[in-house]
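W.,

You were right to be curious about this one. When I first looked at the sequence I had no strong expectations either way, so I just let the prediction run and decided to look at it fresh. Below is the sequence, 337 residues in total, followed by the output.
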Amino acid sequence: MPKFKHLARSLPMAALLLFAGHTQAHQVVTTLKPLQLIASAVMDGVAEPVQLLPDNASPHSFSMRPSDMQIITDADVIFWVGPDMEQFLVRPLQRTDAKIVQLYKDDDDHEHDHAKEHRHDQGHNHDHSEEHKHDHGHENKHDHGHKHDHDKHDHSSHGHDDHHDHDHDAHIWLDPKNAAEIAVRMTAALTRLMPEHEPQLMQNLVTFKERLEELDLSIKAQLEPVQEKGFFVFHDAYGHFVDHYALNQLGYFTVDPARQPGARHLAQIRQQLDAGNAVCVFSEPQFTSAVVETITRGTGVGHGVLDPLARDFTPSATAYLEYLQQLADAFSGCLEG
């Protein structure tokens, strides 16, 4: 015992406090960078969320490593979109005691809610539908707000031979209303995990939602002049953004970025470009733009770049807002041209 007393006296007080704080630290894990950006806004001044997938990885084709499994094992709470986005996580999440918050559900999930709840008996704390009762009556908004309304933009009417059979879009963070709801659900889970930080977390949530609402109005005004301009995107990821801001997306090159578009499908896109139906085609930074450059060559159609995963942003209280503004600038910049 005397040796420990001597050690304590020899350590600077700051180091002792750091050690004490470290022993009680909570690990908050988000799967994707956009979710990390939202969590960073909510957790500003409290803690830093951990991002599971590397910036250069795609959730469509990611393979877990032992170090990734360790992150999940050590987590206290995990925020993920759901199996429609991070299919690779379905089995690993069954091997952690972390609280798991699924942020997106389609209609089929309602049929399985009760089965998922039974996992509590096995020590797996999954909470899908009750998480954000903390937000005074917003319990059910999640199920309706995170749907992609294909009635507004019927992409299949444009000759997509590779059109997929699902009727939803799991890229939910691209709609600012969904982002606000995600922040609400995160805050509810985090206040349960860290009740001592509830005042700060709640204030951060209020600040984030106010800033987001202000930015949303600004982006609507920014994009209104180009709402009728037609365009194609590289893969089917932007439906929430497109629908929210009433943009005129004519179609996409591929459903899954890991799949190359077929020759027939590319010929149909080229036909629309030659007809002058589109003023811009968007590629993505993480995938080769060679197919986009080939299909637009000689058409005079503009070429823009969109990143659905916010790879170049450093988490901060305002990073998600900056990311949303970058998307708006990319759309307006190319469509105005």
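Here's what jumped out at me. The two ends are 74 Å apart (CA to CA). And, maybe more interesting for your project: The chain has two domains: 26-213, 226-336.

Coffee later to discuss?

I.
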